[in-house]
Write a structure and sequence with these properties.
This protein has 533 residues and is α+β, with helices and mostly antiparallel strands. The protein has three domains: 6-53 and 113-226 and 269-288, no CATH class; 291-411, Alpha-Beta Plaits (2-Layer Sandwich), CATH 3.30.70.2510; 416-523, Alpha-Beta Plaits (2-Layer Sandwich), CATH 3.30.70. It is built from 16 helices and 17 strands. The protein has helices spanning 9-18, 22-28, 34-37, 41-53, 126-138, 155-173, 186-202, 229-233, 250-259, 262-268, 322-334, 374-387, 401-408, 430-433, 490-495, 505-509; strands at 73-75, 147-151, 182-184, 212-219, 281-289, 292-300, 311-312, 315-316, 338-343, 352-365, 391-399, 415-424, 442-447, 460-474, 477-485, 501-502, 513-523. Helix 1 packs antiparallel against helix 2 (22-28) and helix 5 crosses helix 7 (186-202). It is elongated and about 110 Å long. Belongs to the pseudouridine synthase Pus10 family. It is found in: Cytoplasm; Mitochondrion; Nucleus. It catalyses: uridine(55) in tRNA = pseudouridine(55) in tRNA; uridine(54) in tRNA = pseudouridine(54) in tRNA. One of its GO terms (molecular function) is metal ion binding.
Length: 533
């Protein structure tokens, strides 16, 4: 095998005798040639055996250059402690050395690898690749590339460490230098093998930046308790987490392996590890598309419609909401699993939103369909508008995640325009309210309103009323047009909220005032872009 040299012979011999598969042996010999890993398993086994049989021949140690780029490495040695001491408390097998005339042929083609537990064996074959592709195709996703991810059993890290310590000990016993202390990651080698096969079957390239993910979750119940000894040696590494079923996560095991002393590891685990009876199980084959974001502006014409579902103590108060009237059409067309709705502020259930509407954005999670033309988005907007007379949507368009940030940028510095119908207990004349038109940049101090105190923290917020314009109706009614800083509580500015907002219309007019109707006339956020009709 051209990628191997004489200095790799002891490693090949030890691991082959221990039941390690050919691809894992290449990993431990730090072979970075991607194409070599794609050779059939039987051919690799034959090549390794022939490599060992040629022990009497003088081979050029630098036979062939590797054209592939250097692979990523995972550091397995955390120091050189005990580098000169060959005596350890763990019992290590002593296979025939490279020079004693015996050739290691111990790993048979049907044997489960003692390191990768079969992942670089059966799960690299065409049958498994077709199984993955069938799952992808049946899920009916739109995608132009894919990223492949693998979840490995945590005990694989333990077995990999054990195999490496066995190699290290063997090289010491032979008095040979250990020039390399890193190996090719199992995940990386697996992707070298599987990516070309998946690309060919799916007809699209593998791309690390793709939003479409194909993932496989592997498990190996037979050996799942092999990492439990680490909890005794390194208890600080294994702490319960709410979203984890087991404390023995892959990251926790890796952390413990970095901390445990070599002699303590050897007391608990054979090096190299023993061969298992069974292959890994592919527990899950999943597909997931990155989120798609849709933005627009909505008008709300009903005084009996909340922005989001109104549910109190598990009981629904109103049958629908702005969020639901918009999202149900998007969910159906994009075939998404779920959604997240956000907007530039919100109005109360009894407040209308008029003018050019309120900016909103919807994140569609795991959509099956992701490509829409401008014409299709226009038709979707029309479908939403035709479905209800309570709302209307405009400027519906696909946007990026980053663009949504513009909706929230400087939110409190933005201005909003309102129209409020106000009642007073004492009779008023036109001249009684005319002075309101001359007030500019009125500073308010607003304690958190009583009506929202159950869901917002108690605080005093300073807000500005930029301008006001009054419109006399009769002795007890007038309309007030206000331009305010975003985040101003308009209802409380009118009635005072028992003195929690100062000043207020009641205190300015020196009489009791209350608000009968409120409309949002404009939300001055220049996003999303206006679309031509």
């Amino acid at each position: 095998m051209s990628a191997l040299t004489e200095k790799d012979r002891p490693i090949v011999e030890l691991l082959l005798n221990a039941g390690t598969c050919p691809r894992c042996i290449l990993r431990f010999c730090c072979v970075g040639s991607q194409g070599l890993y794609r050779h059939p398993h039987k051919d690799l086994m034959k090549d390794l055996q022939e490599f060992l049989k040629s022990s009497e021949e003088k081979e050029d140690p630098g036979s062939l250059d590797v054209a592939d780029p250097p692979c990523k490495r995972i550091r397995l040695e955390q120091g050189e402690e005990g580098a000169g001491d060959g005596n350890h408390n763990g019992a290590l097998p002593q296979p025939p050395s490279a020079g004693d005339g015996h050739t290691a042929l111990g790993s048979s083609p049907g044997k489960v690898c003692n390191v990768c537990l079969g992942i670089l064996q059966e799960f690299c074959e065409a049958d498994f690749v077709q199984k993955v592709c069938q799952k992808v195709n049946s899920a009916d996703y739109q995608f132009t590339s894919f990223v492949f991810s693998v979840s490995l059993p945590p005990q694989l890290s333990v077995r990999e460490r054990a195999a490496w310590l066995g190699v290290k000990q063997q090289m010491r016993n032979l008095g040979l230098p250990l020039a390399k202390d890193d190996i090719v990651q199992l995940k990386e080698a697996y992707k070298w093998i599987i990516h070309p096969q998946l690309s060919e079957e799916l007809g699209v390239p593998a791309d690390g930046k793709s939003l479409f993910e194909v993932s496989v979750v592997f498990a190996h119940p037979e050996t799942e308790e092999e990492c439990h000894f680490l909890a005794t040696a390194c208890p600080d590494c294994f702490k319960p987490a709410k979203n984890k079923q087991s404390v023995f996560t892959r990251m926790a095991v890796i952390k413990a392996l970095e901390k445990i002393k070599e002699e303590d590891f050897l007391k608990h685990f054979p090096c190299p590890p023993s061969s298992p009876k069974n292959l890994c199980d592919a527990l899950e084959i999943q597909c997931n598309n990155g989120a798609v974001f849709v933005a627009g502006r909505y008008n709300k014409y009903s005084r009996n419609l909340p922005q989001t579902p109104w549910i109190i103590d598990g009981e629904r108060k109103l049958e629908s909401s702005v969020e639901e009237l918009i999202s149900e059409h998007l969910m159906a067309e994009f075939k998404a699993d779920s959604f997240n709705f956000s907007s530039s502020g919100r109005e109360d259930v009894d407040v209308r939103t008029l003018g050019n509407g309120r900016p909103f954005a919807i994140e569609l999670v795991n959509p099956r369909r992701i490509r829409f033309t401008a014409h299709e988005m226009k038709r979707l907007q029309q479908a939403i508008n035709d479905s209800s007379d309570k709302i209307q949507v405009r400027d519906l368009q696909l946007v990026t995640r980053e663009a949504i940030g513009r909706m929230k940028e400087g939110e409190e510095e933005k201005t909003k325009t309102y129209s409020a119908l106000i009642w007073t207990d004492k009779a008023i004349q036109r001249e009684d309210i005319a002075f309101l038109d001359d007030i500019k940049e009125l500073k308010l101090e607003q304690k958190t309103p009583l009506r929202v105190l159950h869901r917002r923290p108690l605080a005093v917020r300073c807000r500005l009323i930029h301008t006001m314009k009054s419109e006399y109706i009769d002795q007890h009614h007038f309309r007030l047009h206000l331009k305010t800083q975003a985040g101003t509580y308009i209802k409380e500015f009118v009635h005072g909220d028992f003195g929690r907002t100062k000043p207020n219309i009641g205190s300015l007019l020196n009489r009791t005032a209350d608000i009968l109707e409120l409309d949002v006339e404009s939300v001055d956020v220049d996003w999303p872009p206006t679309l031509a009709d």
